[in-house]
Write a structure and sequence with these properties.
This is Alpha/beta hydrolase. The chain is of the alpha/beta class and 213 residues long. The chain is built from five helices and eleven strands.
Length: 213
């Protein structure tokens, strides 16, 4: 991707008093996939919905992998940096510097959202991860995450996001100072309606008031 403004994405401003949801689709999805969740998660919110820049057998993804659950961590780090750069551009381009950005990702999208928060909390420090896992296996995280808040939603029997990786994710986040809310349900990979309801309550509780002085 040569320049950030060429990154395919959708943007809607929403209410100026509301957050902007950064929507991060799963493998094989597009920038349209998570749009139906916006009003359920945060009525009146704006949204910024980019398309994953990596192709895997014709499917959009956010970073390369060597196999199921085996991430190319160097590429994860690179793509998280690219996403952080895109967010900096979007804030200025759309005049949303003062708006709170809340990353909402599913599966592969949750993983790039988590990686970006872990490595670039200045870009996005409030993250809702559905069916995500630890994306930086073997890589030390030294970032100060004392201002970050992360909500994790996982299935207890998810083979694509194993619970040991989810536990490690929470531990790493907390060790760097982040506030972590863990939500585990029965079942496997997916996004359940009860999780959306809980996430909406969490977003409302973690949304800053916008000053218009």
């Amino acid at each position: 991707m040569s320049t950030t403004h060429e990154w395919p994405h959708l943007f809607t401003e929403g209410s100026p008093d509301s957050p902007v949801l950064l929507l991060l689709h799963g493998t094989g999805g597009s920038e349209h996939d998570l749009l139906p969740l916006v009003d359920e998660l945060s009525p009146g919110a704006g949204y910024l919905s980019p398309r994953g820049p990596v192709q895997e057998h014709g499917m959009n993804r956010w970073f390369r992998r060597f196999g199921e659950g085996k991430f190319d961590v160097d590429d994860v780090v690179r793509r998280a940096g690219e996403l952080a750069g895109f967010l900096e551009w979007a804030r200025g381009n759309y005049g949303i510097e003062d708006r709170q950005l809340v990353a909402v990702g599913f599966s592969n999208g949750a993983n790039i959202g988590l990686a970006t928060t872990l490595l670039h909390p200045e870009a996005v420090d409030t993250t809702v991860a559905f069916s995500g896992m630890y994306p930086l296996d073997g890589r030390a995280v030294e970032t100060d995450l004392s201002g970050a808040s992360v909500a994790l939603f996982n299935g207890s029997a998810d083979p694509m996001a194993p619970m040991d990786s989810v536990v490690r994710l929470g531990s790493v986040l907390e060790s760097r100072g982040a506030h972590v809310d863990r939500n585990v349900r029965d079942g496997g990979h997916g996004l359940h309606p009860t999780e959306v309801t809980t996430a909406a309550t969490w977003i409302a509780a973690h949304t800053r008031e916008v000053s218009h002085d």
